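SEQUENCE-TO-STRUCTURE ENTRY
===========================
What this section holds: a protein sequence and its matching fold, both as plain text.
Tokens: labelled as protein backbone structure tokens, with as many entries as the chain has residues.
Question of interest: how does this chain fold, as expressed in backbone structure tokens?
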Amino acid sequence: MSSLELADVDQFELPVLGHFIDGQEISGDGRTIDVFNPATGRVSKRVAMADAETFERALLAAQRAYPAWRHTPPQKRAQIMFRFKQLLEEHAEEICALVTAEHGKVIDDARGELGRGSKLWNMPVVFLNC
């Protein structure tokens, strides 16, 4: 079998990526979609599909969280976003490896993309007062 042919994915258990909602991983209704490694053409994992109930759960969680975020002082929001930027930087190699495996970018392109996105965090954050 060539490296671009699909393996029989039913022969082994693949990880399933669920939805992270309100601090919990939710799997949806059991339907999944395959994630292919573009370099090999092989299925590397599966992503849980969201059913209407999962979507509603995510929507309600976001609606519940928004008032607290809206009333969080801008300085505290900035600290949270800065910490998020720190986490991106701390896990840059892992993130770039995922971008490479899931989108087919060479590692240097993935690093450049993450770096360009990270530079945006140095810009004034205008949404802090929403």
The CA atoms of residues 85 and 91 lie 10 Å apart. Residues 1-9, 125-130 have pLDDT under 50 and may be disordered. The radius of gyration is 19 Å. The chain has four helices and five strands.
